[in-house]
Design goal:
Elements (H helix, E strand, L loop, with lengths): L6 H13 L3 H11 L7 H13 L3 H18 L2 H11 L10 H11 L6 H7 L8 H12 L6 E4 L3 E9 L4 E6 L2 E7 H7 L1 E3 L4 H7 L1
Antiparallel strand pairs: 1-2, 1-5, 2-3, 3-4
Helix pairs in contact: 1-3, 3-5, 4-5, 5-6, 7-8
Length: 205
């Protein structure tokens, strides 16, 4: 596992530089410690809040793009996404972060054949909000084959097929292995179960 520095100690180094407007010193410190910076959401949220207050978000955007690109290359999409999702609300229209988000999502969800289609449906390659686009993408991935839902009476059902054009989902429930529902019906009457939850694992056993 790659070594990182303590988030609080690192903030204590960066925040005074932000407060004093020492952007060049901040950039030098960032680049010097880039490989060690923690992938801690709170670290980035606090730092971005301070940089926004100091009117430094333009410089922050460039630094973040360098960091995410490095993490994506050296540590993979999971850590890159962890950083991106912590800062997207500060840069909802970022031209620099948009391609990195798309690339990270493609790699992280490589096992989902429909991932590219979901990215298009979410508008992530366009000029819409990255925040809303990511939420839409996440909602679509939860409808991909293999995902698990629960109904209070039918039990757990596994998605078998997603018909995007027709707006329908086919799920396999214990007593109905080919239950067809509309997208609206799934969202209204079923509860999504995270893949790591024991109910999701039990449904697939």
């Amino acid at each position: 596992m790659a070594k990182t520095v303590d988030p609080q100690q690192t903030l204590q180094q960066f925040l005074p530089l932000v407060r004093d407007g020492k952007i060049e010193a901040l950039e030098e410190l960032w680049l010097d410690q880039q490989a060690l910076l923690p992938a801690n959401p709170d670290f980035f949220k606090i730092l971005m809040q301070a940089m926004r207050k100091a009117d430094m978000l333009d410089r922050a955007e460039s630094l973040l793009a360098l960091l995410v690109e490095e993490r994506l290359k050296d540590r993979g999409p999971r850590e890159a996404l962890k950083i991106l999702l912590a800062v997207l609300s500060f840069f909802p229209q970022s031209a620099a972060l948009r391609p990195l988000l798309v690339k990270s999502l493609r790699r992280h969800h490589a096992s989902i054949p429909e991932a590219d289609q979901f990215i298009r449906l979410a508008g992530l390659e366009g000029d819409g909000s990255l925040v809303e686009g990511y939420k839409t993408f996440r909602d679509w991935t939860r409808l991909a084959p293999g995902q698990v839902y629960q109904h209070y009476d039918w039990g757990e059902g596994i998605v078998q097929k997603l018909d995007v054009a027709g707006g329908k989902v086919t799920l396999a429930f214990p007593k109905d292995p080919e239950k067809v529902m509309t997208l609206e019906g799934v969202r209204k009457f079923l509860a999504y179960i995270e893949p790591r939850h024991f109910l999701a694992r039990r449904a697939k056993d």
